[in-house]
Amino acid sequence: MRNQKIKIVLIEDDKALGNSILELLALNDFDVNWFEDGLEALVYLNKNTPDIVISDLMMPHMDGEELFLKIRKNSKFNTIPFIMITANTDDDVKFKQLENGVNDFIMKPFKVKELIYKIKSVVELKKSIEKKFSPDPFSKITIKLSEKDFLTSLNEILIKNLKSKIDVNELSMHLFISKSTLDKRIRKRTNKNISQYMREFRLDYAIKLIHSGERNIQYLVSETGFSSFSYFTTSFKSYLNVTPRDYIKSIQIDKNGKDLKVG
After folding, report:
1. pLDDT tens across 76-129, in order?
2. Please, are residues 39 and 11 in contact by the beta-carbon 8 Å criterion?
3. For 152-166, b where at least 16 C-beta lie within 10 A, e where not — what string?
4. Which of 21, 121, 188, 218 has its Cα between 20 and 30 A from that of 50?
5. Using CA atoms, how far apart are residues 109 and 178, in angstroms rounded to an integer?
6. What 3-state DSSP class applies to 32?
7. Prior bond to 109 cis, omega within 30?
8. Cα separation of 166 and 158, whole Å?
9. Distances from the Cα of 159 to the Cαs of 63, 122, 170, 226, in angstroms?
10. Do 47 and 32 contact (CB within 8 A), yes or no?
């Protein structure tokens, strides 16, 4: 059985370039939907969920940055990888988009092979993270079924709503229980209050992102739903007794003390 094709939404206002990218990606077995306008893409995205979005930065009506920010505000799309295409070599422009949370860049002119590698890389990274973070149905088999169901449901809701900054009220509504009952059940099973559990869940997810290759701390803040860079850094240091930056540096050293290549 063949693997399912990677579904791509491509937004490029240049007809010649857009058509070329579409044809070349299709020839490489990708399922591509091409739009010349960000507004048209948004209409499509309201009914369809691709594996990745690739967009030009500079476009009329709605540029790539505005499109990206609108996508990220929607909980349905906020975990979809996003690659930005641009001819602008200004570092400030690139840094701004990375700070926003864009997953990767590709500079015009580019080779299709480079784009294909980037697409596969970010999509596989997302799938790897989701797989690693999914509850293991065979772990802790001595836990009562009701407890497993509760924690599994809780974790699934958290992982789906990390970037939306879900709070205790919303979480209890998703689980159809009161806030006090939620807190009691969390304390009973984990010896933590609900706020601590949610905070450490976000930090554990950030750690998994780091071990999967992510090095952009601002991106970690965005992906885990922390309200600010400083709060993330303070929480991280309190949790692991080391700053995020120093932690990233530490895991880049292998057992022999040699620097590992990153990027």
Report:
1. 776 788 999 988 777 788 788 877 788 888 888 888 888 888 898 888 877 776
2. no
3. eebeebbbebbbeeb
4. 218
5. 55
6. strand
7. yes
8. 8
9. 29, 18, 14, 13
10. no
